[in-house]
Amino acid sequence: MSDHGRFIWYELITPDMGGAKRFYGDVVGWAAQDLPMPDGGGEPYAILSANGAGVAGMMNLGAPMKAEGMPPNWTGYICVDDCDAAAAKVKSLGGSVMRPPLDIPGIGRFAIVADPAGAVFAIMKPIPPQGGQPPERDMSKPGQCGWHGLYGADPDKGGFDFYAQMFGWTKSDAMPMGDAGTYQLFNNQDGQVGGMMRKPETAPGPHWGYYFRVPDIDKAAATIKADGGQVLNGPMDVPGDDRIINGVGPQGAHFSVVAKKA
After folding, report:
1. Per-residue pLDDT tens for 61-112?
2. What is the distance, to the nearest Å, from the Cα of residue 104 to the centroid of all Cα atoms in its chain?
């Protein structure tokens, strides 16, 4: 089965890698390991792991990115069968290519793109790992990304169609949210993995949000505050068995955590 349309990686761009390692280590429980840079050159990169398996990466928000006006942020990577073809398709469907396809030696080929409303994400054709397929991730386990949420174009008025045509995602349950419109849940080959809704006028620009799973939401809230982050929303119950927090790390990147109800 093709992995086209699967979320396969998450990446933090931060101005303080040391502080971010400590913060997310405390809140989510990740272990951080720096990757050696060839000849000591290039931007540093760190792998964030849960139970010995990489879940996310972290890199420095350097001067060129700051000059472009890039804020600290989390970006999700979606697997594609062909990076160049997928980037071209993004443009043909009304989206934009922010960073053209580029090879990462030994890792794969990626591009940074945005949907027609402006929500940014990454696409990647990874190089298959030695020894076969990587282990399947269980979204219910601590340290994994347990949900993917999009504030963007109205999913009832074309906002979902872009992703359906790009990745083959299908609609799942639709939850009416009153004046806010519909919260449209969606499936990929891993089942129900996220939801999307029309961006509220009071919210920042269109964006994806990533919910990292933790064992205890109340403990996570206390840790976020103690470590210098902010809890913007929650802890709050959501439909099903989960509770969530939307927050901002002390380095400035928005993020969310999710946990099972006690």
Report:
1. 888 888 888 899 999 999 999 999 999 999 999 999 999 999 998 899 999 9
2. 19
Query: Hey, what domains does the chain have and what are their CATH numbers?
Result: 7-126 (3.10.180.10), 145-260 (3.10.180.10)
Q: Mark out the alpha helices in 62-211 (DSSP H runs).
A: 63-67, 83-92, 159-167
Nearest to 207 by CA among 139, 157, 255: 255
Q: Is the peptide bond before 250 cis (omega within 30 degrees of 0)?
A: no
- Cα dihedral across residues 105, 95, 4, 254: positive or negative: positive
Res 134 pLDDT > 80: no
User: 172: helix, coil or strand?
Assistant: strand
Asked if residues 245 and 28 have their Cβ atoms less than 8 Å apart, the reply is no
Quote the pTM value.
0.93
- For the beta carbon of residue 146, count every other beta carbon within 10 angstroms: 24
Contact 43, 60 (CB under 8 A): yes
Angle at 47 between CA 41 and CA 50, to 5 degrees: 170
* DSSP 8-state symbol, 221: H
Kindly report, residue by residue over 172-212, the tens digit of the pLDDT.
998 888 888 889 999 999 999 999 999 888 877 899 999 99
